[in-house]
Design brief:
With 152 residues, the chain is mainly β. It contains 2 helices and 9 strands, in the order αβββββββαββ. It has one domain: Superoxide dismutase, copper/zinc binding domain (Immunoglobulin-like, Sandwich), CATH 2.60.40.200. The strands form 2 sheets. It has a 5-stranded antiparallel beta sheet with strand order 1-2-3-4-7, with no helix packed on it. Strands 6-5-8-9 form a 4-stranded antiparallel beta sheet, with no helix packed on it. The N and C termini lie far apart (41 Å).
Protein backbone atom coordinates (compact mmCIF):
# COMPACT_ATOMS: atom_id res chain seq x y z
CA UNK A 1 0.00 0.00 0.00
CA UNK A 2 2.76 2.47 0.92
CA UNK A 3 4.56 1.62 -2.32
CA UNK A 4 1.47 2.68 -4.36
CA UNK A 5 1.25 5.98 -2.48
CA UNK A 6 4.93 6.68 -3.19
CA UNK A 7 4.47 5.82 -6.89
CA UNK A 8 1.40 8.10 -7.09
CA UNK A 9 3.34 10.96 -5.49
CA UNK A 10 6.24 10.51 -7.92
CA UNK A 11 3.92 10.45 -10.95
CA UNK A 12 2.04 13.49 -9.65
CA UNK A 13 5.31 15.37 -9.16
CA UNK A 14 6.46 14.55 -12.68
CA UNK A 15 3.13 15.70 -14.15
CA UNK A 16 3.33 18.93 -12.15
CA UNK A 17 6.87 19.55 -13.43
CA UNK A 18 6.05 18.74 -17.08
CA UNK A 19 2.88 20.83 -17.20
CA UNK A 20 4.27 23.69 -15.14
CA UNK A 21 1.65 23.22 -12.46
CA UNK A 22 -1.20 23.27 -14.97
CA UNK A 23 -2.21 19.63 -14.82
CA UNK A 24 -4.60 20.31 -17.72
CA UNK A 25 -3.78 19.15 -21.22
CA UNK A 26 -6.32 21.61 -22.67
CA UNK A 27 -4.63 24.72 -21.28
CA UNK A 28 -6.16 26.61 -18.39
CA UNK A 29 -6.51 29.99 -16.84
CA UNK A 30 -4.14 28.66 -14.18
CA UNK A 31 -1.46 29.08 -16.83
CA UNK A 32 -1.79 32.86 -16.80
CA UNK A 33 1.05 34.81 -15.23
CA UNK A 34 0.95 38.57 -14.79
CA UNK A 35 4.24 40.36 -15.42
CA UNK A 36 5.42 43.96 -15.17
CA UNK A 37 8.40 45.31 -17.08
CA UNK A 38 9.98 48.72 -17.49
CA UNK A 39 10.95 49.75 -20.97
CA UNK A 40 12.42 53.13 -21.89
CA UNK A 41 11.17 54.74 -18.70
CA UNK A 42 7.58 53.46 -18.97
CA UNK A 43 6.03 50.51 -17.16
CA UNK A 44 4.12 47.93 -19.15
CA UNK A 45 1.97 45.14 -17.81
CA UNK A 46 1.91 41.82 -19.56
CA UNK A 47 0.39 38.41 -19.33
CA UNK A 48 2.05 35.10 -20.16
CA UNK A 49 -0.25 32.23 -21.12
CA UNK A 50 0.80 28.61 -21.39
CA UNK A 51 -0.30 27.03 -24.66
CA UNK A 52 -0.78 23.30 -24.24
CA UNK A 53 -1.50 20.47 -26.70
CA UNK A 54 -5.15 19.71 -27.40
CA UNK A 55 -6.15 16.13 -26.58
CA UNK A 56 -6.97 14.00 -29.61
CA UNK A 57 -5.47 16.43 -32.14
CA UNK A 58 -2.28 15.70 -34.05
CA UNK A 59 0.19 17.30 -34.31
CA UNK A 60 0.33 18.91 -30.89
CA UNK A 61 2.42 21.84 -29.76
CA UNK A 62 3.55 23.40 -26.48
CA UNK A 63 4.40 27.03 -26.13
CA UNK A 64 3.53 30.43 -24.73
CA UNK A 65 1.55 33.50 -25.65
CA UNK A 66 2.76 36.80 -24.24
CA UNK A 67 0.30 39.68 -24.19
CA UNK A 68 1.67 43.14 -23.47
CA UNK A 69 0.01 46.52 -23.74
CA UNK A 70 1.97 49.15 -25.65
CA UNK A 71 0.51 52.56 -26.50
CA UNK A 72 -3.01 51.37 -25.65
CA UNK A 73 -2.83 48.30 -27.89
CA UNK A 74 -2.21 44.67 -26.98
CA UNK A 75 0.78 43.00 -28.65
CA UNK A 76 0.42 39.20 -28.78
CA UNK A 77 3.64 37.21 -29.24
CA UNK A 78 3.23 33.48 -29.85
CA UNK A 79 6.11 31.04 -29.48
CA UNK A 80 5.38 27.35 -29.96
CA UNK A 81 7.43 24.32 -30.83
CA UNK A 82 7.41 24.28 -34.64
CA UNK A 83 6.11 21.00 -36.02
CA UNK A 84 4.82 22.00 -39.46
CA UNK A 85 6.40 23.58 -42.52
CA UNK A 86 3.60 25.90 -43.59
CA UNK A 87 1.93 28.81 -41.83
CA UNK A 88 -0.47 28.03 -38.99
CA UNK A 89 -3.47 30.29 -38.39
CA UNK A 90 -4.05 31.49 -34.83
CA UNK A 91 -6.97 33.33 -33.28
CA UNK A 92 -8.41 34.59 -30.04
CA UNK A 93 -11.81 32.92 -29.69
CA UNK A 94 -14.70 33.29 -27.25
CA UNK A 95 -15.01 30.48 -24.69
CA UNK A 96 -12.38 28.12 -23.37
CA UNK A 97 -10.28 25.23 -24.65
CA UNK A 98 -13.12 22.74 -24.14
CA UNK A 99 -15.83 24.88 -25.76
CA UNK A 100 -14.31 27.22 -28.32
CA UNK A 101 -16.62 29.87 -29.74
CA UNK A 102 -16.39 32.45 -32.51
CA UNK A 103 -13.19 34.24 -33.48
CA UNK A 104 -12.90 37.59 -31.71
CA UNK A 105 -9.42 38.60 -32.92
CA UNK A 106 -7.48 37.01 -35.78
CA UNK A 107 -3.76 36.77 -35.10
CA UNK A 108 -0.88 36.69 -37.56
CA UNK A 109 -0.29 33.12 -38.74
CA UNK A 110 2.65 31.35 -37.14
CA UNK A 111 5.68 30.71 -39.30
CA UNK A 112 8.26 28.33 -37.84
CA UNK A 113 6.38 28.49 -34.53
CA UNK A 114 6.44 32.30 -34.16
CA UNK A 115 3.91 35.10 -34.58
CA UNK A 116 3.51 38.73 -33.48
CA UNK A 117 0.17 40.54 -33.74
CA UNK A 118 -0.97 43.97 -32.60
CA UNK A 119 -4.62 44.21 -31.53
CA UNK A 120 -6.48 47.50 -31.61
CA UNK A 121 -7.72 47.01 -28.04
CA UNK A 122 -6.38 47.79 -24.57
CA UNK A 123 -5.56 45.07 -22.04
CA UNK A 124 -8.45 46.26 -19.86
CA UNK A 125 -10.94 46.06 -22.76
CA UNK A 126 -9.60 42.64 -23.74
CA UNK A 127 -10.00 41.29 -20.19
CA UNK A 128 -13.55 42.67 -20.08
CA UNK A 129 -14.41 40.20 -22.87
CA UNK A 130 -13.37 37.07 -20.93
CA UNK A 131 -13.66 34.13 -21.24
CA UNK A 132 -11.31 34.10 -24.22
CA UNK A 133 -8.93 31.47 -25.54
CA UNK A 134 -5.97 31.46 -27.93
CA UNK A 135 -6.02 28.61 -30.45
CA UNK A 136 -3.31 27.60 -32.88
CA UNK A 137 -4.67 25.70 -35.87
CA UNK A 138 -2.93 22.98 -37.88
CA UNK A 139 -3.33 24.85 -41.19
CA UNK A 140 -5.79 27.01 -43.13
CA UNK A 141 -7.13 23.86 -44.80
CA UNK A 142 -7.45 22.04 -41.46
CA UNK A 143 -8.60 24.91 -39.24
CA UNK A 144 -10.80 22.56 -37.16
CA UNK A 145 -7.64 20.83 -35.87
CA UNK A 146 -6.24 22.77 -32.90
CA UNK A 147 -2.58 22.08 -32.17
CA UNK A 148 -2.29 24.29 -29.08
CA UNK A 149 -4.67 26.12 -26.79
CA UNK A 150 -4.55 28.41 -23.75
CA UNK A 151 -7.17 30.38 -21.82
CA UNK A 152 -6.65 34.08 -21.16
Amino acid sequence: MIMWVIIALIIGGIAYYVYGGQGNKYGSSGGVKETTTKEAGTATTGTEIVLAPVAGHTPSQNGTANLEEKDGKVVVTLNVAPVLDGPQPAHIHMGDCLATGDVVYPLTSLVEGKSISTLDVSMEALKAQLPLVINVHKSADEASVYTACGSL
